[in-house]
Specification:
The complex is a heterodimer. Chain A is about 35% helix and about 20% strand. Chain A is α+β, with helices and mostly antiparallel strands. In chain A, the strands form two sheets. In chain A, strands 4-3-2-1-11-10-9-8-7 form a nine-stranded antiparallel β-sheet, covered by helices on one side. A two-stranded antiparallel ribbon of chain A has the order 5-6. The N and C termini of chain B lie far apart (about 40 Å). The chains are: A alpha+beta, B mainly alpha.
Chain lengths: ~375, ~180
């Protein structure tokens, strides 16, 4: 029988991550959160409503400055402001105005404009609320050969349990969702119906995305997060053609997106890519062991982590996200997420198939 | 007690614990706040289901589901499951053979998610095996058993004898030959 106070668990307890500031229920953030929950209009026992698409996350920095009593009332004001004034040094409203006159001025913008045109011409899928979006990808996480990943996600309601399969990892799990039923998802976890509700004007769409993301102090830039957020909306999803097109057009409006002429996806298919490159301060050590792979000795891990952190402190780390398109059809075929500071350098995907099927676990016709 | 009165009291006691819970899983800033808010929103809607005496395991179970669902959905961020900030503490630098926080977290990161979670719940969130069983929806006996196995694997990953904290004579070779258990997504 293990004693909960044995030395190993005690040492582990001492190694726990500690919040930068001691969390307190009396803090302005906590009082604003409480007011928001109680002011949601939902009484206990009522089914929840899905979060409005594009509802911006609260601006933590602004709320901190509010006196506790005023936080609830002011939160709505903050939300309203952030829709039109995202917290970015490269605020998209200004960026749009500045860049819309020079649309298609860079190779990346021209490529994304072409990709959007192709996407807009695709036939709109016929979907029913009861159906599921099936996406098969080959995934390589830098620790072994690419493996198959299959997801089934409800077209309309995350409360309809989906399915995730990654046989190489021994994963075959339901994807239960719907903390608030019915739940058509959010910008971070979209269903087809949520995507269908998004604006098809790229400027409005990008404003919504910038409002959704949150600039973190010392963290990733708002532009990087916006590019990443659009990637989330494109990844393992199917969207109506006009929305797909708007997503690519919105990405073209993000400052700093560049074109890469020749890139291979996780399965070796070659394509043309757009890339967002972000340089961050170093200092994080990431260690991920792969199933079936030997773990280095502890002393080696510690030494590598220490060396890595020291190196990163001395030199900032550049992270990149690439979306890869077939050079002929201009359809998205994969994605590469590169994090040179990590042991796992890349997370690469290659899209094999996207389809709408009747039930979670069903394969599209022809399989 | 009126539901709102009860929820306010629950919020005051649970908010700090849930933020620490999020921090223990590598979430910071808005991500941590979103997890806390999502959990407490569900608690408000289902206030009649929240145990009066010991609500934290119930809340942690909700938080765990929210966290895992998001990780599962966002496959590209799978590595967050095993991502920790390693500190550059003098201990970590000066005594690589000891149980430094950096080495412990690196060893934790080498375990399966299930092993990590049971260790986090006990060592970091401060739950008893009985409370862990309510979070993981298993029997208390199973929770103890899982804790026992997870602790043994942690010791092995650290090159220690699982039955004690003594280094094995050939711990480096042991480390080399260690194979991780399956990673659950």
């Amino acid at each position: 029988m293990i004693s909960l106070d044995d030395d190993l668990l005690a040492a582990l307890r001492a190694a726990r991550p500690v919040p930068e500031t001691e969390p307190a229920a009396s803090s302005p953030e906590a009082r604003a959160m409480l007011a928001r929950i109680l002011g949601s209009g939902r009484a206990p026992g009522e089914p929840g409503q899905s979060r409005q698409p594009g509802r911006p996350r609260r601006s933590r920095r602004l709320l901190i400055a509010l006196p506790a009593g005023a936080a609830a009332a002011a939160a709505a004001v903050v939300l309203g402001i952030s829709l039109v004034a995202p917290a970015s040094r490269n605020a998209p409203v200004n960026s749009h105005q500045g860049r819309s006159r020079t649309l298609a001025a860079t190779p990346a913008m021209r490529l994304l404009a072409s990709v959007a045109q192709v996407a807009a011409r695709q036939p709109a899928p016929r979907v029913k609320d009861s159906q599921f979006v099936y996406v098969a990808t080959m995934v390589a996480d830098g620790t072994g050969a690419p493996h198959l990943r299959q997801t089934w996600l409800s077209v309309s309601n995350l409360c309809d349990t989906g399915l995730l399969k990654e046989p190489a990892l021994g994963v075959s799990e339901p994807l239960p969702g719907g903390a608030k039923c019915p739940d058509r998802g959010s910008l971070g976890n979209p269903t087809y119906r949520l995507l269908a509700s998004l604006p098809t004007d790229p400027h409005a769409l990008l404003n919504m995305i910038y409002a959704h993301i949150h600039t973190r102090a010392g963290g990733q830039s708002a532009d990087y997060q916006a590019f990443d957020a659009i990637g989330t909306l494109l990844r393992e999803t199917i969207a109506p053609p006009r929305v797909s097109a708007a997503l690519y057009q919105a990405a073209a409006l993000i400052p700093g997106v560049t074109k890469v002429a020749d890139v291979a996806d996780a399965t070796g298919r070659r394509g043309v890519a757009v890339e967002f490159r972000y340089t961050r301060p170093g200092g994080e050590c990431i260690f991920q062991n792969a199933p079936g792979h030997p773990l280095p000795p502890r002393s080696k891990i510690a030494a590598r982590c220490a060396a890595q952190i020291a190196k990163e402190h001395a030199r900032p780390v550049t992270e990149t996200i690439q979306w890869i398109f077939d050079k002929t059809t201009l359809r998205m075929i994969g994605e590469i997420d590169s994090n040179p500071g990590a042991y796992t350098k890349h997370y690469e995907t290659a899209v094999i198939q996207r389809a709408v099927v009747d039930s979670a676990g069903d394969m599209p016709p022809g399989h | 007690m009126h539901p709102e009165t009860r929820f306010r009291a629950l919020f005051d006691s649970a908010y700090p614990a849930l933020l620490r819970y999020a921090c223990h899983r590598g979430l910071t800033g808005p991500d941590a706040e979103d997890l806390v808010a999502g959990t407490l929103e569900i608690a408000w809607r289902r206030i009649d289901e929240v145990p009066v005496d010991d609500p934290l395991p119930w809340l942690y179970a909700v938080a765990r589901n929210l966290w895992r669902n998001q990780l599962r959905r966002d496959g590209r961020r799978r590595s967050i499951l095993t991502r920790y900030r390693a500190s550059l503490s003098p201990q970590a630098d000066g005594d690589p053979g000891g149980l430094s926080p950096g080495a412990l977290r690196a060893a934790m990161a080498s375990l399966s998610d299930d092993d990590q979670e049971v260790l986090r719940l006990v060592a970091w969130d401060g739950l008893t095996p009985a409370a862990v069983s309510r979070v993981l929806d298993c029997t208390p006996v199973a929770a103890r058993s899982r804790l026992h196995r997870a602790r043994a694997r942690l010791a092995t990953a650290l090159g220690l004898d699982p039955g004690s904290q003594q280094p094995r004579p050939s711990r480096h070779k042991q480390g080399d030959s260690y194979r991780s258990t399956e990673v659950h997504g």
